[in-house]
Amino acid sequence: MQSLLKNRAFRDAALQVAFVGGLVLMVVAMFLAGRANLEAQGMTSGFGFLERATGWRISFSLIEYDTNSSYAHAVMVGILNSLFLGVISLPIATIIGVTVGVMRTSGNGMAELLGTTFVELFRNVPLILQLLFWYTLLLALPSPRHAEPIFGGIALTGRGIYLPGLNVAASSVFVAFLLLLACFALGLWMNAKRWPGLHLHQARRERNILWALALIAIPVMFWLGRIPETPLVDIPRAAGLNYKGGIRVSPELMACVIAIAIYGAAYIAEIVRAGFNAIPKGQYEAGHALGLSSWHIFSRIRLPLAIRIVMPTMINQYVWLFKATTIGIAISFTDFFMVISTAINQSGQTLELIAILMGGFLIINYSMAWVLNRVNDAIKLKGTQLRI
Amino acid sequence: MSTAASDTTMSYIRKHYFATPLNSAISVLLALFTLWVLWSLFDWAVLKAIWGKGLNEECRAHEHGACWSFVATRWRIVLFGLYPFEEQWRSALACLVMLAVAVLSCMPAFWSAKRLPILWVLGFATFFVLMRGGVFGLTEVTERDWGGLSLTVFIFAAVCLLGMPLAIIFALLRRSELPWIAKTMALVIDVIRSLPLLSIMFTFAIVLPFVLPDWAIGDKLYRVIVGYAIFFACYQAEIIRGGMQALLMGQEEAAKALGMGYWHRIGYIILPQAFRNALPPTINQFVITFKETSLVTIIGFFDILASGRAAAGTADWSFATIEMYLFVGFLFFIFVFCLSRYGAYLERRMAVGSR
C-alpha cells in the first residue's frame, strides 16, 4: 500500500479518477434525487410534456402561437424572440460603438469629450437599471390619441412605436435576408481564398458584381412577395383610440433594444478605441508620406487594421451581450429565459426545462462564436505581409 | 511668462478643436449639441425642479421639472429597504465598514497574501454582526428583513469573498499537469461561462432545492450567493490563468530547480506574480460583478434597485419613477466610476513599471 501511494503514476491516475468520478457522481446523484423528488410530487419526468398544450399567452411572437400550441412550440417562440432581439440590437450596438470609438480617437477635442462622456455614463450603470429606465420613459410617452406622427409616418406612443412598414409577406423578407447573408458569406469566402494570379481590380470587380446582385435581388423578392391589393408602403395612421397599419414595436422590445444597444455600444467603443490605439504610428505616417488624404488614411489604413485587431475581443463581447438579452424578463419581454421560467411555473417540469435552457444557450453561444471565428479567419491578415 | 502660457493654451485649443475648417465645424456643431443637452438637463433637474421634503401635492401638480422631494422624503426606503426603522443606523454603519474595507484594499500597503484576506474577513464579519445583530445587545434582524444598499453590498462582498479562493482553486485545477483534471475543469469553466448569470442564479434559487438533500438546501439568499460565486470564480479563474500564462517559463523552472515543492512554487512564485499581471482585469471583474449584483431583483430579492422601485411604487409617488432610477443609478455610478478610474490608474502605473 505504502509503495503504491509513493508510485507517481498510480497516484496521478487515482487523483484523476477521483476528481472526474467525484464530479460525475455528484451530478448523477443530484439528477436522481431531483427526479425522485419530482416523482414524489406526482410529476412525470421526461420530455413528453413538450407535446402538451401550454394554455398561456405570449405577448410577442414572430411565428404563429396561441394557447393551444405545444410547449415545444412556446420554447421555439422564446428562442426566436431572443435571436431576434440579438440580431437587431447587436448591429446597432456595433454601429454606435464604432462611431463613439472613432470619435474618441479622432483627435478632435470636442468629439473626444462627448465620446468619453457617453462611455463613462453608460458603462458604469447596471444594464438592468438602464433597461427599466428606458422602459419607464417609453411608457411615459403620450397615449396614441395625443401622439403626433413625426417624419411623416413614425408615431411615438406609450403603447408602442409605430413605424412605416412594407406590405410584403414575411417569408419573402426572410428569403431576402438570407440572400443578403449568402452574398456576405460568399464575399468573405472569396476574400479568404484570394487565389494567386487574381488581380486586385479583378477581385474588386467580382465583389461589385456580388453587391449589385444582392441589391437587385432584394427589391425583386419584395416585389414578388407583395400582398396583393395593398399599397407597397404601409404608413401607420391614427384610427380611433389607437394607430392602425405599419409596424408596431412594443415598448418592451424597444426598451430592450435601446438598453442593450447603448450598454453594448459603450463597451464596444472601448474595444474599438483600444484597437485604433494599437495601430503603430508608422502606418499612418506612411500614409501621410504617400500624400493620402486624412479620409483615405482612415478608411483604407486605420479602419481595416483596427477591425482586424479588435475582432477576437469583439467575438467575446458579442457572446457576452447575447447572454445579456436574458434581462428582458425584468420588463416581461418574452425571450427564451422568460418562456422557460413561465413554463417552469406552469408545468413544474423544472429539470427538463432548465436542461433545455442551458442546452439552448450553449448551442447558440458556441455557434455564434464559431461563425464569428470563421469571419475572423477570413479577414485576418495572412502570413507575414504586415506585423502589428 | 503669462503670454507664453496662454500661447500654449491657445495653440493646444487650435490643434485639438480647430485644426482644419472641417474640424472647426465639427467642434462647433458638437459644442452646440452639448450645450443644448446640458441646458435641457439643467432646466429639468435644477431650474424647474421641486426641492424639499414631503411636497407630494406640489410635485403632482407640476409637470415640467424633476421632483427631488421624492428623494428627500423616501431616501431611507431606497437605501435601507425593510430594515427596522430604529436600527437603520446599523445598516448605514455596516455599509460604511465595507466601504472602508474597499478603500483600504486599494492601498498597496495591504497587498499581501496575509493582510488582504484578513482585512476582508474581518470587515465582512463586522458587517454581518452589525446587520444580523443578536449579540452585544443588538436586536436580531434576520436576512429576510435586509434590503436596499446593504443587501447589494452584502451579496457583492460575499460573492467576492467566496469566489476569490474558488477562482484560485479553479485556475490551479485548470492548469493542472494531470490531463483529465485540466480537461474536465476547462469544460466546466467553459460551460458555466457561456451561460447567462441570470439562468445560474435562477437555477440555484429555484431548482437546487429539488436536487439537494434537505440539510444542504439553506436559505435562498445563500444559494444565490453560492451560484453567483461559482459564476464569478469561472471568469476570475480565466483571468488568473491569463496572469499565469504571461509569466516566463523560467520562473517556475527556477523554482523547481531550487527544489521548491508544488505549494511553495504556487504560493510564493506563481500566484503573487500572476495576480500582479492580472490586476487590471481583476478590478474590471469586480466592477462587472458589482453591477450585475442588481440582477437579484429579478429573482425576488430586495436589493437597492428593488427597494427603489418599492419606494416609487406606491400610488403617491409613482410619478417619480424616473427620479428614483436616476438616484439609484447615481449611487451605482459613483462606486463603479471610482473603481474603474482606479483600475485605469493602476494599469497606467503598471505600464510604467514594465517599460
List the keywords.
heterodimer; A: 388 residues; MetI-like fold; 3-stranded antiparallel β-sheet; globular; B: 355 residues; mainly alpha; 2 domains; 16 helices; transmembrane (chain B)
Description:
The complex is a heterodimer of chains A (388) and B (355). In chain A, helix 3 (71-104) packs antiparallel against helix 4 (109-123). Chain A has 388 residues and is mainly alpha-helical. Chain A has a domain at 71-145 and 250-379: MetI-like (MetI-like fold). Chain A has helices at residues 2-6, 8-40, 71-104, 109-123, 127-139, 170-193, 200-224, 251-277, 281-289, 294-324, 336-347, 350-379; strands spanning 155-157, 160-163, 165-166, 233-234, 237-239, 242-244, 247-249. Chain A contains 12 helices and 7 strands. In chain A, the strands form 3 sheets. Chain A has a 3-stranded antiparallel β-sheet. Chain A has a two-stranded antiparallel sheet with strand order 3-4. With 355 residues, chain B is an all-alpha fold. Chain B folds into 2 domains: 2-47; 86-354, MetI-like fold. Chain B has 16 helices and no strands. The longest helix of chain B has 34 residues, at 321-354. The interface between A and B is large, with 54 and 54 residues. Chain A: One of its GO terms (molecular function) is transmembrane transporter activity. Chain A: It comes from Thalassovita autumnalis. Chain A: It is found in: Cell inner membrane; Cell membrane. Chain A: Keywords: Amino-acid transport, Cell membrane, Membrane, Transmembrane, Transmembrane helix, Transport. Chain A: This is Glutamate/aspartate transport system permease protein GltK. Chain B: The chain crosses the membrane at residues 21-42, 89-111, 118-139, 151-173, 185-209, 221-240, 293-312, 324-345.
